Amino acid sequence: MRKQIEGSRAVAEAVAMCRPGVIAAYPISPQTHIVEALSDLVSLGRVGTCRYLMVESEFGAMSACIGASAAGARAYTATSSQGLLFMAEALPNASGLRLPVVMTVANRALGAPINIWNDHSDAMSQRDAGWIQLFAASNQDAVDLHVQAFALAEQLSVPVMVCMDGFVLTHAVEDVDLPSQEQVDAVLPPFRPIQVLDPDDPITIGAMVGPEAFTEVKFLEAHRQLRALDAVQEAAERYRDVVGRDTGGLTTSYRLDDAEVAVVALGSVLGAAADVVDDLRAAGVAVGTLGVTCFRPWPLDEIRDALSGVSRVIVLNRAFSVGSGSILGADVRLSLAAEETSVYDVVLGLGGRPVTRAVLRRLLDDVLDGQVSDSVLSFPDLDVDLVARELDREGPDRPQAVSRGELGADEWGKAWT
Amino acid sequence: MTFEVRFHGRGGQGVVTAAELLSIAAFSQGLRALAFPSFGSERTGAPVVSYCRIDDRPIRAHDPVSEPQAVVVQDPTLLHLPGVLDGLTDDGYLLVNSSGSPASLGLAELAPQLQPRHVVTVAATDLARTALGRPLPNTALLGALAGLTGVVGLASLQAAIRERFGAVAGDLNAGLAEQGLVLATGGSRRHA
Hints:
The complex is a heterodimer of chains A (417) and B (192).
Chain A: E1 2-6, H1 7-17, E2 22-25, H2 32-43, E3 51-54, H3 58-70, E4 75-79, H4 81-86, H5 91-96, E5 102-107, H6 121-125, E6 132-135, H7 139-156, E7 160-165, E8 173-177, H8 181-187, H9 214-243, E9 251-254, E10 261-265, H10 269-282, E11 287-292, E12 294-296, H11 300-306, E13 312-317, E14 320-321, E15 325-326, H12 328-335, E16 342-347, H13 357-368, E17 377-378, H14 384-394, H15 400-403, H16 409-412
Parallel strand pairs in A: 2-3, 2-4, 4-5, 5-7, 6-7, 10-11, 10-13, 13-16, 16-17
Antiparallel strand pairs in A: 1-8, 6-12, 9-11, 14-15
Chain B: E1 2-10, H1 15-28, E2 32-38, E3 47-55, E4 70-73, E5 93-97, H2 102-105, H3 107-110, E6 119-122, H4 124-132, H5 138-149, H6 154-165, H7 167-184
Parallel strand pairs in B: 1-4, 4-5, 5-6
Antiparallel strand pairs in B: 1-3, 2-3
Helix pairs in contact in B: 1-6, 4-5, 4-7, 5-7, 6-7
């Protein structure tokens, strides 16, 4: 049913229709509205026999989800930012123990400096935790992906993180078509755990594994993650067949078929990018977008194939690895290792700085004009003068491009080496 | 057709709710609408901005409204803050919550590109104090916005207001919306 509804509320209603048995969560902006709404729905008796656990922290939330899932309950939580980091100790336990917990991450920057606004630093910091990571490009996507996430998690016995842009999506009130309870039930059968902690039939879950077998256990975990690539696609197809909406599976593309230039991104920025694509197409530029819905496991071959006809790829990174470089861009380069494609690796939209259509249009124009290097990480929305002043105060230890004086302030923002 | 509104006010004045209600009214008329806030840690009294983007086609972009066709200022002490009137289009509307006239606030100087009849003040806080006993100017201003711009009808707006606020407060706020509309349009516009 179509509703004009806040993204958080829509996700809460979708999660409720997934009939979770246990919800354990600790509030943190911008995730709060999701768990508040779920708390209301549970107390109104609209989520069956679901138990909503008030926990003392995010660490407690994930630990409770792990215990509940091991005992055979469908378990759900949600968090953001440092809340996710506070769960970090428990996250590889959920994946290592093959517990199909589903978690929403309302993406937000990591402090310090403290910043409550949106980027992808939180989810990126946990990309190696063994969880499947799905990124929603819209609130419609967020609703649809949550239903698929439970089905996927339980089919594979792997936990799934559904990432949605904090504030930009969580606090946006817009048109969302919620599936019916019957449709959700058809996509998501009752949870049948692969093993259950039961006092009447005791087993051990999570025994110590020494050097004699740890590598093999980890290999199998990685192997199952890669097998999940097929399952993600199948879950999307099953959802499409039942609900009638195609979420695309591993990736989504827009006007990519004959494109010479492609914008690759995660999350809600894809909407603004699609508008810019239409503008540029009207001006005769063959450009399209590729949205990565499934970031973990990384769809190596599918990304390569999707970008096969493209000569220039612009990767929008909304988080980066300090001291190394891009994260999403590095994976895209991995997919394109054997190709001739130029990859323009761009960091923007950190800590809530809006990635507007104007910013994207300028970036695309600069790439088309040959103004952006494909060999360095670029920061197109950086206040170059401010950074240069700060570095001047700190003395001679400055990025080479500036101290050599070879690049003007404008260019330096694009040429962080 | 695209119509974008930016609301400026203070935490506690219903700035975020105003954008949401406008979006719900638009949705009920078969339009697409996106309402979203831009605020930090929620604090009563701190400046808050919210946006509403309305279109007859699906809305994909979630970026902030930078060139609004209407700016609603729920607290006139914000008028001189940087950015409040930024990007307001030449054919746009400026609606300010004040018991003073546009001239007394110097609105023509602040937004010289606007047609004089598109620059309006409504004493929305006074109306709300009388009707609700609380200084919540948002619903009267929404009625004024609907009357000025025609972007949504009063009936849709009142339905959204009643849905949000329930029986008693819903009726009072729906009445405020109508009062706002009548004041902003000089009572000249017939409405359902």
